[in-house]
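Section 4.2 – Deliverable D4.2 (structural model, holo form)

The reporting period included a commitment to supply a predicted holo structure for the target in complex with KG4. Inputs used:
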Amino acid sequence: MQSILGIETSCDETGVAIYRPGDGIVADLVYTQADHAAYGGVVPELASRDHVRKLPGMIGEALDQAGLRPRDLDAVAYTAGPGLAGALLVGAATAVAFASALGRPAIAVHHMEGHLLSPLLDADAGLDFPFVALLVSGGHSMLVEVGRVGDYRLLGETLDDAAGEAFDKTARLLGLGFPGGPEVARLAEQGDDRRFDFPRPMVNRPGLDFSFSGLKTHTRLLVGRVGVDDYADVAAGFERAVVETLVIKCRRALKQTRLERLVIAGGVSANQRLRSALDAALPDRVYYPPAKLCTDNGAMIAHAGWFRRLEGRNDGQIAVRPRWPLTELKRPA
Ligand code: KG4
Ligand code: ZN
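Output (structure tokens):
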């Protein structure tokens, strides 16, 4: 039975998992670094150091969880980009060293490809190619037409902030913690989402690009003139504006490509209101990764690495690409 280890260290989550085709994920560990909260955002140097501290122990733990020895592994996949350079280097150096000690291939995985393919991990969901993918995370917001593994056509992307970044910045304006997405969502539950009128950026223009920085500015202006008691209504109005904007663009992307299926991945895909709104707008056409695979994790890297392993890849040197366009990826030969 073949097994592949996946290592994710692109930002502030240390993820280690083992994937076995046929069995699925047989070990899955995620450590979320807590130190950044005090700074309101991820501090790159702290992130790198924490990955160094955690990663070796987590690899041993993942092997124990799966009941495997190191030599049972067939390959080691790691996130090579995009992400924070120092953080990526920790994962890459560890993966390449471990793989070469075992005499196995090391496979460089694109972080967003990991997110994009993660809904396929749920065999019961019945997802198949082709589909449109909405990738919404802390660093990216894009719509991609996916023909098959490695066949990615960019349909639209954000011109400024990513959707997750807008949540994080809004959270900061509202005095909430980091990461902001879940905190804004929690506060929004107690608010009235129709009290404040937020813009729906770029929906009246043709095309599939996004812009979220105006929403953040709108929040800043609102926060300046309301009281703390009104913050739940601000959070609810903001969340509704993001969700409605994303739903409009997703419908438009499906119409334009004439595709049936929509996949949502990346941290913001954990948002419950987004899920409900998409399910209502596009019944039986929307696929999500299992909840714990929405935010960064090693499982999606092991899984995407597996597809790349099939093409016989071996990225034996430590090479990271902090900026790596998804559209540069190729279909496996
Ligand atoms: O994919 P991810 O874990 O890391 C990146 O690759 O960026 O995404 C993290 C982002 C953060 O901006 C976080 O605030 C957002 O995803 N996020 C959410 C929710 N959970 C995480 N945004 C909205 N609602 C959520 N429930
Ligand atoms: Zn991510």
